[in-house]
Amino acid sequence: MIERAGASIASRFVHGAGARDRPRRLRSITPARTEVVVKIVVIGGTGLIGSKLVARLEARGHEAVAAAPNTGVNTMTGEGLAGALEGAQVVVDVSNSPSFEADAAMSFFTTSTRNVLDAEKAAGVRHHVVLSVVGTERLTESGYFRAKRAQEDIISASGVPYTIVHSTQFFEFVKGIADAATVGDTVRLTHARVQPIAADDVAEAMASAALGAPKNGVLEVAGPEQYGLDDLVSKALVARGDARRVARDEDAGYFGAHVEETTLVPGEGALVFATRFDDWLSR
Hints:
By secondary structure, the chain is of the alpha/beta class.
């Protein structure tokens, strides 16, 4: 479910989060103008977000192609890209680096993105949509987020019309955050605010972006509630019967980057979805 105003998808302002400065921020996704069947290639289409996105696009009557190594498409080498993109109007990239290590992430995002964009130009693709992370431009101490920023810069300079979707942390990723911050039986985390979102809602946002007009800018999406990161992880661990203890540590950072209170929250104009973390936990 998503908040609406009239017939358009509307945004809700995030109180306490200041406007951000790069790139242009967008308040809505323009709905598709027609019901013409569109061929949309989903890079990373067999993963968490990709599989949900493919299902949504197919349910709307479009031709959705899941492009991933296990379907014969390797974006690092370019293998299978030309065939997958033949006749496609839109490409949505929700793939992720298999490693968070700085050099590996940079190699993956820059090489893969250039290969995909080159294939798009050859195929005449009219819209490139990519999933990225709220706060990417502020998390410069992290090699992984520097790689995501480099990916965005390549896309914006490519000449292919594009939409960059910045998402907050997925509910499904909270355990991974805990695991990365665990020493012994203690999880050390900052109290910096986050505004997490369900993967189903991210997939819905990506589908709407894919079927809308290119924005040539960034759209932020988030869930309805803000938490301190330590409080969010503690809630999740308790709900799952995980005995690890969460300790607040403002020096803990976030995947190698120092964070301030609002580094990880979206700015004004973010598109806010309705799924609450407690409701997701109870499923």
